[in-house]
Specification:
The structure is a single chain. With 252 residues, the chain is of the alpha/beta class. The protein contains six helices and seven strands, in the order βαββαβαβαβααβ. It has a seven-stranded parallel β-sheet, sandwiched between helices. α1 crosses α6, α2 packs parallel to α3 and α3 packs parallel to α4. The termini are far apart. It binds nicotinamide-adenine-dinucleotide.
Amino acid sequence: MSSLHKDKVFWVTGAASGIGRATADELVLDGAKVLATDLAGSDFSWAKNNASLETLSCDVTKEEDNEAAVETALRQFGRLDGAVLNAGMAVPVALLDETLETFDQTMDVNVRGVVLGVRAACKKMAQGSAITVTASISGLRGDPGMWTYNASKGAVLNLVRSLSMELACLGIRINALCPGPVETKMTAGFEGAGKEALRQCIPLKRWGRASEVATAHSWLLSSKASFITGTSLPVDGGVSANNGQFRPPEHQ
Ligand code: NAD
């Protein structure tokens, strides 16, 4: 337990599992109060009986849900010092054989959802507040079969750069994190050879843990990162440092 975020209140989206849940836990460990939101029906049993955690249904694609989340944080905890806009989806789409329904849905959640979250939060946050967005190293370059996800995460990275200029005038920082492969519900489909092949592409030679992304969120939200805005931080075991020609060597 630290006092890094003593008396601070944060809102975390997509917080029922994975990186969002780990970030909510990390912020509470760092002394904050947290409103954890996710889709209706999400399992928030882990957050029960913790006075520092409040939970709420919030579909990030709905403007009224985003506004209700901010109102709930204010009503429950009296203030809002930051938001972790983390909710996301990743579904492969065959470019020529499928409709654009999944593409539209992905852009809605991964990009428009962030715009709605920023708009709702910034109306109620004071100078010195901060926002972090869970983007992805998939926003930096392409992945086979993942063009929809790549496009959405690339868009959100440039959105964060651009919004940093809008928000600087309000004294609010915004930064993105670019996780590499992290073991969560989203990546549960990677098993056996597929999971091992990805591991071999990671210079640190292991998949990441949600808690390792959570600590980066907590740090970027804190006053320790007070001169950092508009940037994107890879949390990827070195994947994005490799230009892809050669597979990083196994450790001795
Ligand atoms: P996860 O599946 O455990 O969590 C994603 C959460 O987002 C889920 O709880 C889901 O219900 C929620 N969500 C989806 N659509 C939503 C909506 N419309 N409104 C509200 N919530 C919604 O997966 P995760 O890996 O923890 O993903 C968190 C973020 O991290 C995502 O943005 C994802 O793209 C990003 N990311 C994950 C990895 C990885 O390897 N796991 C890598 C890079 C980036």
